[in-house]
Structure formats: structure tokens, C-alpha cells
Amino acid sequence: MAATSAELSSLATALDELTRRVTVHAESADNVKDEETARELFAIERSLANANRRLSRLALQLARR
């Protein structure tokens, strides 16, 4: 089954929410000086944000077809 623009857009929205949740935990770890956890969570946040940008671009490309 091929992904549609709407499905990918929905996934991007879910990924955005997940990224926000990871950010909250990363900032919390940073505030309590848990540097290792904060560093890992911020790295995960960057990866999720990058994946979300790629997914959003793909959704736009499919919508233009």
C-alpha cells in the first residue's frame, strides 16, 4: 500500500508531538544536571526533528502530484 500525502502528514503530526515530549524530558534532565540523559535526549530530539522535516517534505511532494 502506497502512502498518501494525508497519511504522511498525519504521521508528521504524531512525530512532532513525540518530539515535543522528548524535549520536555531532555530539558527536565538538563535542569537537574543529569547531563548524560539530557545529552542523549537532545540527540534523539534532533534526530526526530530531522525525520519530521523529511516526512513533511515528502508529504508535500506527494500532494503536488
Residue share in β-strands:
under 5%
Major sheet characteristics? none
Helix content: over 70%
Mean pLDDT equals 94
Give the domain tally: 1
Round the Cα radius of gyration to an integer and report it.
Answer: 15 Å
Element pattern in H and E: HH
The assigned structural class equals mainly alpha
Which spans of ≥5 residues are poorly predicted at pLDDT below 50?
Answer: none
Could you say which overall geometry the principal axes of the C-alpha atoms support?
elongated
- Compute the number of strand runs: 0
Produce a short descriptive summary.
With 65 residues, the chain is an all-alpha fold.
Question: What keywords describe this structure?
Answer:
mainly alpha, 65 residues
Overview of the structural elements:
The protein has about 60 residues and is mainly α. It has one domain (about 5-65). About 90% of the residues lie in helices and about 0% in strands. The chain contains two helices and no strands. The chain has helices spanning about 5-30, 35-65. Helix 1 (about 5-30) packs antiparallel against helix 2 (about 35-65). The radius of gyration is 15 Å and the shape is elongated. The model has no long low-confidence stretch (mean pLDDT about 95).
SSE arrangement:
Elements (H helix, E strand, L loop, with lengths): L4 H27 L3 H30 L1
Helix pairs in contact: 1-2
